[in-house]
Design a protein that fits this description.
heterotrimer, A mainly alpha, B mainly alpha, C alpha/beta, A: two-stranded antiparallel ribbon, two-stranded antiparallel ribbon, B: mainly alpha, ABC transporter involved in vitamin B12 uptake, BtuC, two-stranded antiparallel sheet, 16 helices, disordered N terminus
Amino acid sequence: MKENKKESIFSKMNDTTLLLTITIVIFFLMYIGAVVFQGGGFTKPQMFFNILNANAALIITAVGMSIVMISGGIDISVGGVVALVSMSCAVYLDYKGGSIFGSILLALGIGVAYGLVQGFLVAYLDIQPFIVSLAGMFFARGMTTIVNTAPFNVADEEFNALKLTRINVPFMGSVNKKGVYVPAYVEIGVIVALIIVVLLFVVLRWTKLGRSFYAVGGNKQSALMMGINVRRTKFLSHLICSTLAGIGGYVYFLHVGSGSASHAMGMEMNAIASSIIGGTMLTGGVGNIIGTLFGVLSLSTIQNIVASAGLDQAWWTGITIAAMLCIFLLIQSVVMAQKKKALKS
Amino acid sequence: MTDIKKKSEGSFLRKLTSNQLFIPLAALILLAVINLINDPGFFKITLGTNNAGFPVFSGYLITILDYGSELGILAIGMTLVTAASGGQDISVGATIAIAGSAMLRVLCGGDSRPETIQAPIIVAFLVACIVGMLCGAFNGMLVAIFKIQPMIATLILFTAGRSIAAWINNNELPIVPDPKFSYFGSFIPGIPIPTTVFIVAICIVVIALVLKFTNLGLYTQAVGINESSSRLNGINPTFIKFLAFVILGLCVAVAALIKVSRLSTINYSVIAKDIEMDAILAVALGGNALSGGKFNMWASILGAYVIQFLTTTLYKFNVQSDALAAYKAVVVIILVVFSAPTVREYMGQLFKKLSPARKEAA
Amino acid sequence: MSENTVLKMRGIDKSFPGVHALQNVDFTLNKGEIHALMGENGAGKSTLIKVLTGVYSKDEGTIEMEGKGEVQIHSPQDAQKNGISTVYQEITLCPNLTVAENMFIGRGEEKITNWKKMNAAAEVLLKELDIPARANQQLSNCSIAVQQMVAIARAVDMDCKVLILDEPTSSLDEQEVEKLFGLMRDLKARGVGIIFVTHFLDQVYEVCDKITVLRDGQLVGEYEIKDLPRVQLVAKMLGKDMDDLSDIKGEQESYKGQDAEQVVFEAKDLQSDAGIKPFDFYIKKGEVNGFTGLLGSGRSECVRAIFGADRVLGGKVKIHGKEVKITKPVDAMKNGIAYLPEDRKVDGIIGDLSVRDNIILALQVLTGFFKPFSKAKANAFADEYIKKLNIKTASADTPIKSLSGGNQQKVILARWLLMHPEYLILDEPTRGIDVGTKVDIQKLVLELASQGMSVTFISSETDEMLRTCSRLVVMRDRKVVGELSGEDLTQNKIMSTIAGGE
């Protein structure tokens, strides 16, 4: 037997914790590095909260993406759904005279409808999630232009009031050039995003459904044999993801205040990248919502670093995100291989 | 054919529907019929003259053959990548931009409005091939050596590709001054058939020869089905997967030649946009499992033209190019739903249940 | 239903396209009984188990359970609800979850996981069953044997009336098997009915009370263990009287060529990254030898090192006295070495490919990337070996995955024989296949050796090794600890060498 085998730190930790730790450590190193070398903006708390403000929608969609990925699936339609929700809500508010409440319902409705259809196709008809959500993405992008071709800013006053609502963060703030203390603030979307992160963290950790996502992603066949309703679990993972894409769409809409067919271009890729950087594995069964949050933060911090380093040509953003994704993938790959090796001998 | 005749009608149907070419063919026929009903003129091919006064064929069918070329070529590589790695390369659109940009850089020598081309076309094309293959090698390395899932590995170039392409030419949009360069994406003077048709034909012949005279097909399928077994049978799965991505890289370079040649310039954010999705759909439409393993190259290529047929048909119905995606999505979902094994099984049972009832009624 | 009966299956019928897998099969299980379900591969055991556990739905027939009358089982959940738990040969747990979760997930109706309570309950269970694992450890960090024990713990902890053990012992070593048997007897005393499926006859006679034999999807009969001696059991399973199990070594002449004493393969200080100590090994022309030792003793790792299947770290290898370099499988193949791997499903078959492609694969690779066989040639090869080895397949075009285990093994064997190797390594060629095919394979090994092929044979069943090998290398704890031949080749001597300590 192998009890006497010396256990390395790798084999003591489970995969999820291991990858999460790596992500959090790297994020803090990166942020500290930014503060030390770039100084300036990074020392102000508002810099951090601006990252949150700009990325609340991404956090929400990335959390949904993580859940689908943990269950062993993928959903690349989320960016399309965000664009569709923004455009639909914009049209509803400005052209149809709708209410704020109605527009929220509309956003949720689009998300849920997407989840129902895609979940059904993936879980009950056994069609590959990639293909289903690929078609979903096409459909959402196409529908967005059918709803309204031209981009426009929403004029609705109530909406704009909501959009500009700022919530001050206690004990955080900085003194501006005139010597006046300016409290740091976040937008409503950030509060929504944080509530969702906490809620889903609890769901994944402590509920039967949450654990079923891990089980199905870990080994579908085994999960079935152990009495888990695999189809329902997969269905629910897609339902949650698309619903979150709907909510994320509204938060995005609230942040930008306009409808456009080119909104949230490539957001699905950013969501996937954030999940991966946060330690979710596309093979399923491994991942963590807190990690995803840090994934989004890492991704946007690096974008900010690039921007403030004066590399403002558009292409640098793409290249740095890709480089970072590459590095994290390699870390994952190498760490997992090391771990396997450690276990073998 | 004789052994088919001997069997009952039912088994003939089953044999027909179980053939991999059935779905793309059925979709093709359906599209053809819809167009025939809508406008019989759809199939008319006329011999006219183009702006330069040379005779050219024109008509919707020619358009489909012409504009389906890039997709057809990409389908070849994508099929191999899918079969060997069990995943897809989503970076082909972005790598077309890279290869195309590199080609322009060589042709224009870094000048955005050169008087003459700065290097022979063949050199530029070879450079594009090398660049395409390097991109493929990069993807292949991540997938085969570092064991990263293909979709995620190729996500890197997908994200960075268009930026890299812009960077190669310093974000300028050089225009190739030599009209000869535009022949690849249009017509060679005096020949009324689009040049792209010949390029695709060459690609198909090459891959057919490769599949016939090498074991690429067998190895690729073996690796895709069971990597561990393949290794113990002396195959090098790492190399086969790597090779598949490099071949796709070559396909990308050829597609980039056509794409860039059509405009004699490039638009980094728009060139070959969403083509990866179409290429993956072509493979799926050809009835190839996206999880890898067995493949049918011809079904994939046919699938590519079916998708182009669909695009052209939608344009014919006055669908806006931006809205095109929505309609395509609906068609795709209908197709995959009907080809899903679960649905097929269910339909089979339904058919079985219905047929005795029919007999009893008679 | 008599009051002692816990499960009664009557008239079970199940067809798949082209196969009538079960025909009107009855099965009865009593409380507190260990009931062996025996049959060759393809006899319908697995199908019957899968019908009972809800993986397949039956076409005809009824299932009755004690106190419930007729029950409908359409899914594994239904089976669990009715008190039927199963432990499969392949571990059906989730590697990414913790040990405790694997024991408790999918059971009970609580929507919220109480980790503290669950871990405590798991620790108790682990202690009770003496399983060396921690409750909060990730399952994939445990050894395969421990994983299997966890699966068993999960099954026995459920308030089960019927426990199905479907070849649970194939990945366990002897001590672990003993532990499992202890557990089974314990459950039996508590009144659980146990269905035990295994290929090891010894194990059947050690723990079982009754035997039900299936053949070709039909019920042969149900017997008390004391009424059915081994020979008769085998006869019932095969449907013919068997004297094949007697000494087959005498039937084949040993190789008489003039180069009979020549050493074909020789290794010195060979070492791989699979954790075995450097070892020396040689084999002569026409010789059949074997590696023996407990599971995990390193016998498979040795032959994998010879074939270059694991990364070779050091040592010298000579073929016919000439030094060669073998670092990957294709090097070994070029030197005339063939290797039939231990795990047929993972390392052997290429599931979706046809029987033909599976047969020609190795020779094709050896012939070269640029020289594919013509279709006619490939067909000729396939047909030749389908006939030669009596492979039961609808055609050469059938995907190999739809064949039974024994026939799949024959296809893999055909793949290597087609290569006409000088030196053939067979690692557990008889595991998980029916008795008839086992004997066929053993005979074939001796026949090949008599024609001058050198064969290394590995099997978990010592009597199989004794029947075929003329020399045995004994391993313990990843080290070669002895070599036996001639007079020393007896069950007792092997056991004492494996145990060590003289």
